[in-house]
What does this fold into?
Amino acid sequence: MIIYGKPYSDSEILSVMHPLLREWFLSNFKTFTPPQRFAIVESHLGRNVLITSPTGSGKTLAAFMSSLSMLLHKAEKGELSDEVHVVYVSPLKALNNDIKKNLEEPLKEIYELAEKKGIELDQIRVAVRTGDTETAERQRQMKKPPHILITTPETLAITLCSPKFSKALRNVKFLIVDEVHAMAENKRGVHLSLSMERLQRIQLGKMVRLGLSATIAPLEEVARFLVGYEYGVERDCVVADVTFEKKTDIKVLSPISDFFNLSAEEINERLYDTIAELVRNSKTTLIFTNTRSATERVVYHLKKRIKEPIRAHHSSLSKEVRLEVENELKEGKLKCVVSSTSLELGIDIGYIDLVILIGSPKSINRALQRIGRSGHRLHEVSVGRIIVLDPDDLVECTVLAKEAMNRNLDRIRIPENCLDVLCQHLVGMSIERKWTVDEALAVVRNAYPYRNLSREDFVSVLRYLSGRFSELERKNVYAKIWFDEKEGVFGRRGKMVRPIYYLNIGTIPDEVAVGVITKEGKMVGRVEEDFAERLVVGDIFVLAGKTFRYLKSKGMNIIVEEVEGEKPTVPSWFSEQLPLSYDLALRIQKFRGEMEKRLDSAVEWLMENYDLDEKSANALYRFFVEQKLFSEIPTDKKLVIEKFEGGEKNYYFFHTLIGRRANSAISRVFAYRVGLMKNCNVQMVVNDNGFALILPPYKFLNDTEIESLFIIPNFEEHLIRSLDHTELLRRRFRHVAVRSLMVLRNYLGREKSVWKQQLNADAILSFLKRYYPDFPVLKETYREIMEDSMEIRNALDYLSRVGKEIEIRIVRTPYPSPFAFNLFVLGEEDVVLMEDRRKILKELHEKVMSVIGCGENSGSTLSS
It folds into this structure.
């Protein structure tokens, strides 16, 4: 059962602490922080606890208190056995070294205290074990295991298979999982959930689980993910929710009030002047951009304006550079650090008094997490400023800031029944010992993401792993286990399986740049893999200032031909953007509905209810009025579809504001259906606010045909068909095949290049599609694309309401409407320079204003 915890008093907490720990605590801290009040007594009583609280609230110490007390009792009685009593798991290697340091310092002080009192204590050992740990250190740990083991999810899975070291893991009293929010919604968390159950299975006594998380929802589900099931029965967990304790101050700022008539240069000037002003007025500022390229750009422009030290921090930089930046930040040497996502998690970065987000963070949880990095201590206010340069962003962030201030969080989705992660663990389990199918399936189903796994899927994975499909041997896919289906038992096959497992474990795919080569064989440059994933044969894009048509893929290269004077169909800067969360999208739909109702008094209402300054409120108001006068405002009750026909192409804009992932699913199915209906190529562009279908000049859709696209039957089947021959399917199949140990990244110490991995994967993919369409690795690839990266459930949820509570309004417009500008620009051409984009927006805006009869100086007419 999941229950919400209660805070305990100082005396109650102190009474369960070892006397030395109590004395050390009281000489260092005045009182307990909220997470400590909720968690210490509960974990001492042997209950599982999930602590969710802002950064800097003392939750790490809260998690370690009971284990330190337990270890000190054992150390004093001379009962400290040579085995691991506490396992701490974190997704960040950088965090692990911090934690070790933060444990060793208090222990040193406690031992000095004991010496003064004449108390003899055995030595409590703390050690880090990750992929970077040197062999000598690993061997030392084998001989004398640490009492507190600090590790990552991947290394934990490896140690469970180690014949010697796993014996030291049979008496773990506390398992602490940090940064739960960073793992619960991806395959790394799924992988960890199985490792936790395998660790649980070998315990001789009771193991208490403690999860630490930043702002996250829904808490009950995250708690179930942490504690899992005991053979069908949900394990108990106490939820300590102390997120409400931290004060937050979030405001949206727009350096410009006129979104359409300024040049890119003017906008940049105002953007960087605004940021520089904020940075100057703070002691230390942390700036988040949404992409790595933007990070470098911001640093470049700020250095021109501010003479004090400014540094960049993102995942493309080397580990040494990142560490250097973190240390300089901790020591207070930097005025400002600009990061993409790499500083979101809890690495200790010292004191920061302002966080600036450039552009929308796309999710309420992410906004709170990033802004929570400022005012690191609990009683300090977290100050965040979100800077927007685009009317769509202004709408989005206005709603996001209010929801974040009210702590209305996005619900996360935990991936379920991932068959590729299961493949890895079944190989790992077979290395441990021989299993019966029933026994292994029961352990797997104890993990929350696999609670509903069917026996059929489980057995299909065993058949694949045991080489039941012998034709795959020709593609170098060999059996890793033996499986006697009649007896219902399986185990490892041969001695080579162990090193193969150790060298290929993990869920994070090797990301690489994809080479762009002309059909004559000339190398043009590289594009990011997720950009290449979006290409469809015939797409035109810009690279190094020239236009190319995509012809086909080969291994890790795409083959193109140069085309002069053709308009690009894919924007180059589209690849890195974060997708808008579905929950936030639905709230923005509602906000649009509210705005439509209150247009007459919107400016005052926005300033009062959304804390906007007059300039931003006016800009928002104008955006909505122009949309209403020109077309219709799409809301939570009305889906507006705009037809803009008769030019070089025919555009159909669908204002389905449900986030890019779900929009991607719907647009692919609709494009597939229109392609069949009209027997032509359909181009599509997608963003968070909707999508556009673009048809050739002589093909049109009438209203009845548009409405017929919304039928739900065959949606999933059409989505699968629309993925055929796409880059997305090829690359995702490679990721899944590597995770399933079907394509090995590393064979006995020899690294296989991503290019070779992709070639292998391509050969296997075409074979499976032809002969074994239900093969588990292929099935998982489709599941991952549809459920995790396209949110098919949300797409279907939205479609099920269209025509019932959401009415369809089809409007014919002479030009794209203000709400469709961004989609039009995406589909119109690859805007290499922001300058081109601004020019088009300005022209579009002038056309719209001429239609609604407000002329050039519409702003003043509208807001007066």
Remarks:
- The two ends are 59 Å apart (CA to CA).
- The mean pLDDT is 89.
